[in-house]
Amino acid sequence: MSGFDYSKWDRLEISDDEDTHHPNLDKALNTRVNRMTRDRKEEEIDAEVKKLQSEGLYDKAQKMESKRPLHVNNVCKVAEERTIVNWSDGNRKDRTVKDGEEFQVDEYFLFKEEHGALLEEFTEASWEKSHSMLAEKGGILLDDCANNFFLLSALEEEMKGNKDSVAKIGRQGQIISQIHQLAKPMNRPPRDLVHRFFDRFDGGQAQAAFQEGVEHFLGHIRKRAIDKKREEAEEAQRQAEEQSSAPAEEEVKAVSLVEAMHEMSQEERMGPGGLDPVDVFPTLPEELQECFRSGDVEMLKKVATEMDQEEFEKQWKRCIDCGLWKPG
Fold this sequence. Notes:
Elements: H1 27-54, H2 58-66, H3 72-75, E1 80-86, E2 92-98, H4 105-123, H5 127-141, H6 144-160, H7 163-183, H8 194-199, H9 204-245, H10 257-263, H11 266-269, H12 277-280, H13 286-294, H14 297-306, H15 309-321
Antiparallel strand pairs: 1-2
């Protein structure tokens, strides 16, 4: 049976930062804008929790904290990192690092973007192909990010009602999860245990244990999806009641692209053509500046047809080189 601790995923946000912006606006810049918006919302929760605690309203503070959405950046923390080094004299040095760094959201997104095709191929793989893929690409497929990918994907597909996809993802994810479980007590890299894991399946008892783990995982995913839908409905009702019974509070405004680029370091905002959007933006024609201030793509199309074509192409190349616009 699977020994994976699923409780930390109970308030998980399954949407990705990069999926919430116009496809032509520079992906890296927009992803950072979305994260800044999310960080502002978290800062509001922090402030409200602190205020309630200072007033002695600890129950309300705890209730407010419980509503903080979890995401990849704050649910995956390395509690202990252990490295065993074999020296040339035959001695083994065991180094353990406590309270490691939190799992960075950039790391997960970059992993998914770089290895997405391999993860999808493994999702569709047969038992025999899974064995060969893990033997050949275990360094990638047995990474912690891959484990998180299958968990997140299973929950997302269950929320959408795609039962067949959930079953496939759950099965393949459990292969990875159970190899990790096999390796942990031995203090061995999971990749070293790939062949041993599959060799165990010559007998029916191992197959039954594996399937029990799969069913346990799928059962948790089903329960979590039901709970999450209920929580979303309750939260929507609560917000509607608060809005109808209390003065309207000013909503947190999304950080605009123009505002965000001034809050980033030059290295973070530098465009693909080596131009800095902070330097380029003030020199753009006013009508183009307004398009990016408002984020109105239809206005941008209108400006493109009305401006002198040669001038527009000149300015547009600068927009691309500084990352304000992504061709395609």
